[in-house]
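2.7 Reproducibility. Because tokenized structures are sensitive to small changes in the input, we list the exact sequence used for Protein phosphatase 1B, including any N-terminal residues retained from the expression construct. No trimming or masking was applied before prediction.
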Amino acid sequence: MGAFLDKPKMEKHNAHGEGNSLTYGLSSMQGWRVEMEDAHTAVIGLPHGLDPWSFFAVYDGHAGSQVAKYCCEHLLEHITSNPDFQSALDPEPNVESVKTGIRTGFLQIDEHMRTISEKKHGVDRSGSTAVGVMISPGHVYFINCGDSRGLLSRGGAVHFFTQDHKPSNPLEKERIQNAGGSVMIQRVNGSLAVSRALGDFDYKCVHGKGPTEQLVSPEPEVYAIERSEAEDEFIVLACDGIWDVMANEELCDFVRSRLEVTDDLERVCNEVVDTCLYKGSRDNMSVVLICFPGAPKVNPEAVKREAELDKYLENRVEEIIKNQGEEVVPDLVHVMRTLASESIPNLPPGGELASKRSVVEAVYNKLNPYRSDDTCNMIEFLTSRSVDWHQRTEESLLLHGICLTKNSH
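Resulting structure tokens (single pass, no recycling of outputs):
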């Protein structure tokens, strides 16, 4: 639910693959939450004769992981097997039919999960957002249900990103009120902070209303974007644990800078989740990075700058410790605070000093092998360096006060 651990779980689940002229990597980490409720899907070459197509998705569960896990295993089949989607098999698929088939798949799996839950004589109260992409030879179909988010980088900038489904959005609020609900503290009935999700059947019980007219709707928004072979770079799919602390442009710039120093996509994704942890995210974190042939490539000059930056930070940490004298060993928070007050050249855009915390910590521990440091204190410090992100979402205003449950998303 909404409780936090004493310190974050930083072990990561990773995967990578390639095919259909795509490469991908992913990373997921439990972080501060007492339970890991995220799930993901990555499939290159779809069933039913759709070998040139690929599908990727991130599911951000709340109030349990059951819905997220079920969707990661079965949503794709519900989409590709329904009659509305069959036009995807045509030589020139009808874009609107494909979009309709994706929506139908979401509605079908939601109803199927409700039936399964009722047969177990107890409604499953968990729910999950979903953000995904279905990539065909000609189009990228962005799919979003909730407040996880996907973006496309094209030509060196954010070209497209999905819109979060929040109860305070005018159209979402209108649907909620028409179903007899209310929006309080920017939540459905003062509790759930997303207005669209799979599962959450407690919010889908209004008689006389169809599935897309309930307090919480399982209907995704689907956007079709024509591919640009010359300019398409990469797609990022991530849960709100990432977006809580990084804006679209920040994450896009950070990923681009990492791709210039490594072609290991798992490593890039790991750096994203670690950086977001050190920027103050208290949620589960999952990110999928999908690269097109036009993605940034490793640049020797960028690699050199990165090595010089790491060496500079190592030297500065040694200097800071030595300047304290032999009798007083400064803690890691003091070292980071000192570095944060300085103008350090060539820090990764979007990640800044938080993205180099592991470098600082490694040299600190090497010089002070018997001194432990409180991760919680470190992250509280780094969070205080990013006051602006507290203004990006209503949840973040409550992170250090009321401990909202994940059921409150």
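The first helix runs from residue 66 to 81.
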